[in-house]
Amino acid sequence: MDTTEEQYQGFLKQMGEDSFLVPYKEACQRTEQKLAKINDDYSRRLGRTFISQITFRIKTPESCLNKMLKKKYHVEKETAQEHLNDISGVRVVCNFLDDIYKLVEILKEDDEVEIVKTKDYVKKPKASGYQSLHVIVLVPVKDTLKKKVEIQIRTQAMNFWAVVEHHFVYKKGNYGKNEFEKDLRECAKAIYKIDKKMLLLRERMESAQAIEQKTG
Fold it and tell me: What is the DSSP letter of 91?
């Protein structure tokens, strides 16, 4: 085994140890609990479901290594902690386009979490067509220890597209990528139009309901 291989194996071992992973898991769980409470509060206020799905995952050591190599970072645990924002990841699925932005505003007002960075792939999708709002937050775990969590916020339609693209393209390497990327981009554009149309429809229905309640 050469030096580079030994370094990679050592990195994978360190990244898989409980002492490294447990704080990230706790950060995910705390974020999930916070989002669930936000959902309960705002669903009651709005009279409809605010968040339809919350899931979380911890990036595998192998995925971390692949990303480190892709980004040409020095392969060591400390560098991963500093530069990888998505070791802890929480996915939030909302029903409507405006809800994903409303959620970010709510998080900004939260004293327990600190927003480090926001990437808006909804207003400016990735070249593949991928749409999602990414928010990197620092979450307190214990004492002064904080861990970064990447919250991906998207609509039901955006999530459907992302799941399909992730399974057939992202995880499968370049298999069939060139053949399907144009169709994927076109589907992403159609999904955004549908999201906007559904938002307008909801707003019209809410307005009609409000008028009916006043006159009724």
Answer: E
Angle of the 18-46 helix axis to the 3-15 helix axis, nearest 10: 50
- Active-site annotation holds for 150: yes
Q: Is the dihedral angle over the CA atoms 192, 193, 196, 201 positive or is it negative?
A: negative
Place of tokens 């709005």: 46
Gyration radius of the chain over CA positions? 20
pLDDT tens-place string over residues 34-53: 999 999 999 999 999 999 99
pTM (predicted TM-score): 0.91
Q: What is the dihedral of CA 160, 81, 84, 99, to 10 degrees?
A: 50
Q: What is the DSSP string of 7-42?
A: HHHHHHHHHTSHHHHHHHHHHHHHHHHHHHHHHHHH
Note the residue count of the chain.
216
Q: Choose the catalytic residue: 150, 165, 186, 206.
A: 150
Closest CA to 60 of 9, 22, 10, 21: 21
| DSSP3 helix / strand / coil % (the chain, rounded to 5) | 60, 20, 20
What's the sign of the alpha-carbon dihedral 171, 174, 176, 180?
positive
In 53-176, which residue ranges form alpha helices assigned H by DSSP? 61-70, 77-83, 97-108, 156-165
Judge whether 112 and 34 are in contact, CB under 8 Å: yes
Nearest alpha carbon to residue 139 among 30, 38, 36, 57: 30
Residue with more model confidence, 32 or 3: 32
Rounded Cα gap, residues 10 and 75, in angstroms: 10
